[in-house]
Amino acid sequence: MKKLDFTSALILLGVLACLGMAGWRYQLETELSYAKSAFADTQRHIPEIDALIKELREIKRAKAMNEEVDDLSADTYFPSQLSQAGIGYTQYTIETKKDREVNFVVRGRKKKRAIETEATLNFKKGEGGKPRPFSRDNIHAAVYNSEAFSNRWRLRRLQLTNEDMRVKGRSKRGFPDELSDRWYIDRMVFVMRRPKGR
Q1: 136: domain CATH number?
Q2: Is the pTM of this model over 0.85?
Q3: Which are the contacts of 89, defined by CB distance < 8 A and separation ≥ 6?
Q4: How far apart are CA 155 and CA 32, in angstroms?
């Protein structure tokens, strides 16, 4: 085999180095393209991430405030939860039905008896005797708070009506192209069950 002289070896080494640099550059450009795409995607989600961070902070703050809250009484429990969701206690009244015994099934087989309490939040009379519409965020936070900070209360029924659908004559003109984020709470019902003592 013919030996390479110094100049030929140097040229070959330069060619190999150029090929290596070209491959490295291609890899860097590919990674940079992925990084730019990921950064752009992150930028689009920043408002959502920021909102989630704020919500987590509020949840921690609310949880700390509710560690000693008594959730047995609907009259004291729900006002504290809904007020943190931006719904004042003057916007509704609470009606609690008389406790009743019910049967429920455990793990699909075993039947048990429990004492059930139903609490209805009536929003028909707000400040000034008129109901007030709320945003979906307010309503979602109200339901979430009421369930998250109690092992007893659970939402049974929620009925909403959009403000646009309450306008007189709206049905004659047809449905609007887009509904506003203003909702009247027609009915919000929570239920609590406690095991019946022997």
Answers
A1: 3.30.70
A2: no
A3: 79, 82, 83
A4: 49
Whether 59 is covered by a domain: the verdict is: no
Boundaries of domain holding 157: 74-168+177-195
Q: Which residues pair with 158 in a beta bridge?
A: 188
Domains: count for the chain: 1
Across the chain, which has 198 residues, the per-10-residue mean pLDDT values are 64 78 82 79 73 68 58 88 89 87 65 84 72 92 92 92 72 69 92 76
The reply to whether 45 falls in a domain is no
Q: What are phi and psi of 160, to 5 degrees?
A: -125, 150
Tell me, yes or no, whether 3 lies in a domain. no
Contacts of 120 (CB under 8 A, 6+ apart): 94, 95, 96, 97, 187, 188, 189
